[in-house]
Amino acid sequence: MIRISSQQIFSGGISRMQEVNADLVKTQQQLSTGKRVNKPSDDPVAAARILKLDQEVKRIETYERNANLADNRLKQEESTLASAVDIIQRVRELTVQAGNGSLSANDRMSISSELKERLGQLANVANTRDASGEYIFSGFQGSTPAFAKDASGAWTYQGDEGQRVLEIDDGVTVPISDHGKGIFVNIPATISVKESDSVDGYVSGLELFAPQDLEDAFSPAVPNDLTITVVDAAGTLSITANGGTLDLTPTPAPTVGEPFEVSGIALTVNDAVFNADPTLTDSFTIGVSDKQSIFGTIEKLVAGLEGIDKATLKTSAEYDALIAESLANLDNGQESILLKQTQLGGRLNAVESTTAFLEDSGLYSKEIRSQLQDVDYAEAISNLSFQSFVLQAAQQSFAQISRLSLFDRL
């Protein structure tokens, strides 16, 4: 015969009610939080996987924020460069108008005034700031304006050549900035006369028609200038490069007033002043690989419109050359910006595809986590009803059993 003491009855009853109540509280917590696993002991295996999935979701969310930032920065730069192209296009239209030979001095001054306004607009565009107040074209010097006027009043670049990059996925980085020096300053300048010792001489018909010939002639390094010198009273010309160490004079040697070609460059030296004394010569320095900023091109054009008098043949030729050079340099500037816009388009495509991948990965990770973690409300509510019933039954049974006594049978 097994004897059960009153203490055992009470202990067993209380223990059972505590177990049922614990299950009930667990189910209530699941319903209130919406999670099946609220602590590791609920399901150790699932809890470990949920922890890893939480880390993965946070990683993806961080990269999504980076991708969104990159997208905003690149779109802002793209929009800014589009504005710059519009301004340069207007400057080009004004330059074409300035080339009209029937314009009066007042007409040229009016064009010059608008060019100054457009120059200021271009500077404002180049000094665009992002949402955090940093200048987007200053490289790493975000607190410094990209362009500012120097002591002479010319617009010069103030930043550095740094390029910021942002990681938008594991091992995937994308540049989110471009320095203004590469976009607005380092623009290939058209070939032009940089210096002249002649009083009445000038160069006309200057044209680069075969760039490859120029590169081959100056290989391995293209110099910054080409010197044309009148060597005698007959007007014979010599053409040298690399500081005079490279003789490019054609055979037979060209003369003043005669069109000629040398290393892919066509030109004519006109009306140079000759002197019977062979020690007196005229020379012209032709820039062949110079760089000129878009700002410098417009500034030079403004100075030309305000300073050149077309009353003489020489100044008229200089004026025409200025217009032609300005148009060529403006085209080079637009091409530089359009090339950068193409690069930005490629970066935006990369950001877009990475963003789509991150979104898909995030949805997949969240779905798996949901399957492991989220509660089945229908099942949980059913369990809660059943557990409430069991707890109530246990309480009633315990109440009945706890009142039993041998004295009731006496």
From TrEMBL:
Transmembrane residue ranges: none
MF terms in GO: structural molecule activity
Keywords recorded for this protein, A-Z: Bacterial flagellum, Cell projection, Cilium, Coiled coil, Flagellum, Secreted
Stretches assigned to the Flagellin N-terminal domain: 15-140
SUPFAM superfamilies (UniProt xref): Phase 1 flagellin
GO biological process, one term: bacterial-type flagellum-dependent cell motility
Coiled-coil annotated spans: 53-80
Secreted found in the keyword field: yes
PANTHER family for the chain: FLAGELLAR HOOK-ASSOCIATED PROTEIN 3, FLAGELLIN
Name of this chain's protein: Flagellar hook-associated protein 3
Annotated organism of origin: Marinobacter halophilus
